[in-house]
Amino acid sequence: MIIEVDNLTKYYGPKVALQDVSFRADRGDILGLLGPNGAGKSTTMRILTGYFPPTSGTARIAGYDVVEDSLEVRRRIGYLPESVPLYTDMTVSAYLDFVARAKQVSQRSASVEWAMDAARVDHVAGTIIGRLSRGYRQRVGLAQALLGDPEVLILDEPTVGLDPNQIIETRSLIKDLGGDRTIILSTHILPEVSMVCNKVVIINRGAVVAVDTPEALTRRVVGADRVAIAVRGPAPEVEQCLLGVPGVRTVTPAAGSNGALRYEVDAEPGFEVRERLAAAVVQGGWGLQELHGQSLSLEDIFRELTTSEEGVPVA
Amino acid sequence: MRGIGQGLNAIWAVTRKELYSYLVSPMAYVVTAVFLLVNGFIFFLIIASPSAEASLRPLLPTTAFLLLLIIPVLTMRLLAEEKSTGTIELLMTFPVSDSHVVWGKFLATYLVYLLMLLPTLVYVGVIKAYGNSEWGPLITAYVGLVLLGGAFIAVGMLSSSLARNQIVAGVVGIGVLLLLWVLGAAAGVLGPRLSSIVAYLSLNDHFQNFGQGVIDLKDVVFYLSFIAGALFLTVRVLESSRWRA
Question: Residue A305 in 3-state DSSP?
Answer without folding.
Answer: helix
